[in-house]
Structures are given as structure tokens and as C-alpha cells.
Write a structure and sequence with these properties.
The chain has about 280 residues and is of the alpha/beta class. It has two domains: about 220 residues, P-loop containing nucleotide triphosphate hydrolases (Rossmann fold), CATH 3.40.50.300; about 45 residues, 2-Layer Sandwich (Alpha-Beta Plaits). The chain contains eleven helices and eleven strands. A nine-stranded mixed beta sheet has the order 3-6-7-2-8-1-9-10-11, sandwiched between helices. A two-stranded antiparallel ribbon has the order 4-5. A hairpin with a 4-residue loop joins β4 and β5. α1 packs across α11. It is elongated, with a radius of gyration of 22 Å. The chain starts with a strand and ends with a helix. It binds iron/sulfur cluster (2 copies). The site of one iron/sulfur cluster has 14 residues, from α3. This is ATPase.
């Protein structure tokens, strides 16, 4: 079963929920934790261990100046503005290139080939028995993290129990991460902004046809508006994590409440069971 953990915005505690859930599952069975928040992966901070790195590349065009007639067809074709053709040379702005390969197809002279460039890496760790952590890391300055997300998803494709931490928000990286998962845990805070962002994330997950439920983090005990929203959208509230000094202290030092505070391993085990019952697993 593949469970995605997402949120409409950063800072809601999404990664904390993913890490606690994975730690709890690892007490019972083999589990893979995947960090698809490739711009800012942080799950390795909960689970420090040596990493084996694998580069992630994508293809970009290379121009043969001997064959090129500077006709401009490739530049006209490229909708991302990645190619500029001048009188005596062709320039590529690789950070704008989406690696579609189209310029190579339209070049009448066969002057374009492709070459791989590294845009990031995956890091694999085994921080404890039963837990495999795969993190996607995008190179600084890269605009498109989707190939890194694909590489992480490829690495976890055969694993049985997988928890995937998504990027925050509701844009393409979230869609790439959540699609084809069995369930999505939406982490939110019980504030008006939290409900707004939850709605955006819930819309994306619903459009993908992935069943979902909600974890309310930093609950003050008065979550009536969030609960009303969840009822309206037919989203089950799977868990509440209260806003207490004790929990905040554990989280602020990078700890795991499931491991460090009494009763929370059972609470996260219940969360996993709730997800299983929602998907009929
Ligand atoms: S389409 Fe081919 S020949 Fe024309 S400018 Fe581009 S690389 Fe040169
Ligand atoms: S591969 Fe596609 S996106 Fe990249 S430069 Fe060529 S046409 Fe543009």
C-alpha cells in the first residue's frame, strides 16, 4: 500500500506526520519512507544514517555547429524559450529546457542530439531495521523537480508498504507525488488559512481520484470549522495532534512523538489502521 502525505502549504507538520507514521510502521513490518519534497527534503533529519547516492539526469539538446544553418526552426518550436538562434551560433538555456526532445525532431539538418545533465540525486538510507528511506534531492537552481520525483517513485515501485512525503502546496510536484497512490493523508492546521489550503489540496487529490482523510495538527481543541469543512467534503478526520508544550518540545529538537512520548506510537498505529480500513486493505 502506498500512502501519500500532503498539505496545502508548508509548515503544517506534514513531514512530521510522515516520519512518525513510518517509524510506527517499522516497529511492525518493513516500510519504505520516500521524501518527494525534492526542493527541501528533510526526512533524513529524523533518521540520520549514511546515504548511498544515485544521480538523476535529464536530457538536453546539443547543437552541431558544423551542420546547423541557423534557420531558427528549433527556437520557434521551443515554447519554453530555451533556445536562441543568432547569426553565427545557437545558445541553449538549459534551466528553461523541459527535455521534450521536440527541437531535435524539427531540426531539418539533423544538427541536434541530446546529452544527459545531472539535475539532482536520490539518497538511500537504512536508518533502522525495517525502515528504508529514499530521498529525492533537486540541485539548487533547477526549475523542474519532476524527474527527481519520478526517480524516487521508480526506486520504491516494488515495495509493499510505502509512505511518501509530498511537496507542500497543490502544484505539479504534488500531483506527480500523489497520483497512483492508494490513499492521501492531508495534514492541516485548524485556522482559516489552514482550511483554505486544505481545500486546495483536497481538490487536487479528489481530481486525481485518490481517497483521502485529514490529520489536524496543532489542534487547540476547537476545530469546529475544520471539522465542518471535512464533513462537507466527506473527508474523515483520522487523527488530531494537540498543540502542547510537550509535543512542541519533542518536535523542535527533531524528535518523533511516536518514539519519544507515551501513547503516540499507538495513536499512529491507529492512524495506519484507519487508512487501511478506508482503502479496504
Ligand atoms: S533547427 Fe537545426 S539547423 Fe535550424 S537553427 Fe536549430 S539547430 Fe540549427
Ligand atoms: S528539448 Fe524541448 S524544451 Fe528543451 S530546448 Fe528542445 S524544444 Fe525546448
Amino acid at each position: 500500500m502506498k500512502i501519500a502525505v500532503a498539505s496545502g502549504k508548508g509548515g503544517t507538520g506534514k513531514s512530521t506526520v510522515a516520519a512518525n507514521l513510518a517509524w510506527t510502521c517499522a516497529q511492525r513490518r518493513a516500510v519504505t519512507l520516500a521524501d518527494c519534497d525534492v526542493e527541501e527534503p528533510n526526512l533524513h533529519l529524523f533518521f540520520p544514517a549514511p546515504a548511498a547516492e544515485t544521480p538523476v539526469t535529464r536530457m538536453v539538446p546539443v547543437f552541431d555547429e558544423e551542420l546547423c544553418t541557423h534557420c531558427g526552426d528549433c527556437s520557434h518550436f521551443c515554447r519554453y524559450g530555451a533556445i536562441v538562434v543568432m547569426k553565427d551560433r545557437v545558445m541553449l538555456f538549459p534551466e528553461l529546457c523541459h527535455s521534450c526532445g521536440g527541437c531535435m525532431l524539427v531540426c531539418p539538418e539533423g544538427a541536434i542530439t541530446e546529452t544527459p545533465v545531472q539535475i539532482g540525486r536520490t539518497e538511500e538510507r537504512t536508518p533502522m531495521e525495517n525502515l528504508r528511506l529514499i530521498s529525492g534531492v533537486m540541485n539548487e537552481g533547477e526549475a523542474n523537480g519532476i524527474p527527481v520525483i519520478h526517480a524516487v517513485k521508480e526506486a520504491i515501485s516494488g515495495d509493499e508498504t510505502v509512505i511518501i512525503d509530498s511537496s507542500p502546496g497543490s502544484a505539479c510536484p504534488v500531483i506527480e507525488t500523489v497520483k497512483e497512490t492508494d490513499f492521501c493523508v492531508l495534514v492541516t492546521e485548524a485556522t482559516p488559512f489552514g482550511i483554505h489550503d486544505l481545500e486546495l489540496a483536497a481538490d487536487v487529490v479528489e481530481a486525481l481520484g485518490v481517497p483521502s482523510g485529514v490529520v489536524i495538527n496543532r489542534s487547540s481543541g476547537d476545530d469546529a470549522e475544520t471539522e465542518a469543512f471535512c464533513r462537507e467534503r466527506n473527508l474523515r478526520v483520522l487523527m488530531k495532534i494537540p498543540f502542547t508544550r510537550e509535543i512542541a518540545a519533542v518536535q523542535n529538537r527533531g524528535g518523533l512523538i511516536a518514539r519519544d512520548l507515551e501513547g503516540w506510537e499507538e495513536a499512529f498505529a491507529d492512524l495506519y489502521e484507519s487508512v487501511c480500513s478506508e482503502v479496504g486493505a
